[in-house]
Specification:
The structure is a single chain. The protein has about 240 residues and is an alpha/beta fold. It has helices spanning about 40-45, 65, 70-80, 95-105, 165-175, 195-200, 215-225, and strands at about 5-10, 25, 30-35, 55-60, 90, 115-120, 125-130, 130-140, 145-150, 155-160, 180, 205-210, 235. The strands form two sheets. The chain has a seven-stranded mixed sheet. A six-stranded mixed sheet has the order 7-8-9-10-11-12. Strand 9 and strand 10 form a beta hairpin.
């Protein structure tokens, strides 16, 4: 099996019919990582992989459109027959576990550690997950937020998370075979299609995602001269 990306959803800031919020599945022959868990993505994940057999979950930042499906995933792992052999490794920004517990019913008796082994990200955080190497880069989104660089053998995948243009974004994309970049719109904490294209100059391929409500996918693709990720599609890295 080749290193590949499956798009679970791309919508922002709320799910649309047929398109959940941000969520992606990274897979190699031996490893599966759920990248961002926006609303609706847990259901789509099950079309491609058993949730209890994931090797890890990686969350770019704590905004609900990237993390809210951690809540039903918690209940699925503990109370609905999705029983992993051990708590699932969860990589996310500082404070993510406490934020999750705030929304869990009876949080004092439902600690995040019951379902997850939580690892807090920092700039340059590196994790070996199965046969993937995951490196996190701090990006500029007005709160702790990270982009991801994932390596399998000689193939490199980069994901912007949510961010405005910044040097870290250029470093993240440089040399990547596939660069998945948000194009929510211009502003200090998001990329425009042109920003995404500029950051992708050092990458082999650019794939746009998380298109803002003020843009159509056709407009974003034309402005960036790059394709837009489609929910359900799988791309070889």
């Amino acid at each position: 099996m080749t290193f590949r990306l499956t798009v679970l959803g791309t919508a922002t800031p709320y799910p649309r019919p047929g398109n959940p919020c941000s969520g992606y599945l990274l897979r190699s022959e031996h490893t599966a990582v759920w990248v961002d868990a926006g609303p609706g993505t847990l259901a789509e994940l099950q079309r491609h992989h058993r949730p209890d057999l994931l090797d890890a979950v990686w969350i770019s930042h704590s905004h609900a459109d990237h993390a809210a499906d951690l809540l039903p995933y918690y209940y699925a792992l503990l109370f609905a027959g999705q029983r992993p052999h051990a708590p699932v490794p969860l990589y996310g920004p500082p404070g993510l576990a406490a934020r999750l517990e705030t929304f869990l019913a009876g949080a004092s008796s439902n600690p995040a550690a019951a379902a997850f082994v939580v690892h807090e990200l920092h700039d340059g955080h590196r994790a070996e997950v199965g046969d993937l190497t995951l490196t996190s880069h701090a990006v500029d989104h007005g709160l702790p937020a990270f982009g991801l660089r994932a390596v399998h053998d000689d193939a490199v995948f980069a994901y912007s998370g949510d961010t405005g243009p910044c040097p870290a974004l250029d470093d993240l994309a440089g040399g990547a075979d596939l660069f998945l970049c948000e194009a929510d719109g211009a502003g200090p904490y998001h990329c425009s299609p042109e920003d995404a294209a500029a950051a992708a100059k050092g990458a082999g391929r650019l794939l746009l995602t998380h298109i803002g409500h003020a843009l159509t996918t056709a407009e974003a693709a034309e402005r960036a001269h790059a394709p837009v990720a489609r929910p359900g599609e799988t791309v070889v890295i």
